[in-house]
Amino acid sequence: MAAHLAGKGHTLCGAIALPTLDRGTLLRKLNQWGLRKAATYARSKLSPSRGDTQSQVNNSYLQSFLKNGHGIFRSMKEVAGVYKFPLVVCKAQNAPESIARLREWSPDLVVFTGGNILRQPLLDVPRLGVLNVHLGLLPEIRGMSSPEWSLLRNVPLGITIHYMACGIDTGPILQRLELADAVRYESLNDLRNRLVAFGVEKVAEVVSALDRESISATPQPDFKPDFKEDHQYFVMHEWLQARAAECLTSGRLAPTRGAPHG
Q: How far apart are CA 215 and CA 191, in angstroms?
C-alpha cells in the first residue's frame, strides 16, 4: 500500500508498523489460514527470500505495485528508504507511543492496512479520518472471512473502502466495488489475494479523489432492507470454508441455514 501510494505521488509523512512477528497478527493468520499457512508466513518474516522476484511476493497480484527499479521492494523499510519517510515500529497500534507519533506527524489521512481494532484516540488524530479496505460489501458482510461469507450468503464479491469507526466495519462508506468474474479464481486464497490487490489499486484512486474533494462518504445504514438482521461474522468453521470453496470453484452458491459458524 505504501509503495503504491508513494509511487502515485502522494506524500507519506510516516508509517507505523508492528513487530515482525506480532502475536496478534500471528493469531489472526492462524485463525484465518490454519497452522501450515501461518507457519509459512512466520518463516517468511524471519528469513525472507532473496532469490527470484516471484518467490519474494506471497501475493503475486501485488507484484506490479512493488516494483523498485529492476527489482521489487522486500520490506516496508526499503519503501521508507526510497521515498524518504520515517518508519516507526510500535508494540501496538493503539499504544500511547503510536498515538503520540501520529499527532507529531499530524496527517490529513491514515490508511489502515491491518492489525488490531483501532480505538477512538487513534481514530481522532487524522483530519479526514482512517481509511480501511474491507474485503466484502458493507453493510451486508461485516467482520472476518468476508470473501467466504459473501459466497455463502449469495452477496456479490467485492471490496468496500470506508472510514473506520469504533464498531466493526461500521464507518461511513466512500466506495463499494464489486469484483467481476469470480468463477475464474481457482481457490479461496487466490480470490483473497486478488481482492487485496484490487483494494490497493482502488485506495490510491480514492485518496486522489479526496485530494480533489471530488468524493464524499455516506453513513452506513444499520442493515440492508432485504436482511432480517444485521450480520457480523467471526472466525469461520472449516466445514463452511470447504463449502465456500465449492461455491467458488463451481460457480454455485449454497444456503447455510443450520450450518455451524464461529
A: 28
Residue 111: in which H helix or E strand, if any?
A: strand 109-111
Q: Which helix (H) or strand (E) holds 31?
A: helix 23-33
Structure letter (DSSP) for residue 96: H
Q: Both ends of the chain: CA-CA distance in Å? A: 30
Low-confidence ranges of the chain (pLDDT < 70): 20-56, 181-183, 222-235, 251-262
pLDDT at 107: 97
pLDDT of residue 98: 95
State which amino acid sits at residue 148: E
Task: Report whether 158 contacts 146 (CB < 8 A).
Answer: no
**DSSP character string of 117-185:** PPPHHHHTSSSSEEEEEESS-TTTS-BS-HHHHHHHTT---EEEEEE--SSSS-SPEEEEEEPS-GGG-
Contacts of 45 (CB under 8 A, 6+ apart): 20, 21
| Mean pLDDT for the chain overall | 83
Q: Which pLDDT score, from 0 to 100, does residue 182 have?
A: 56
Per CATH, the number for 2-250 is: 3.40.50.170
Residue 218 is classified by DSSP as: B
Q: How many helices (H) and strands (E) does the chain have?
A: 9, 8
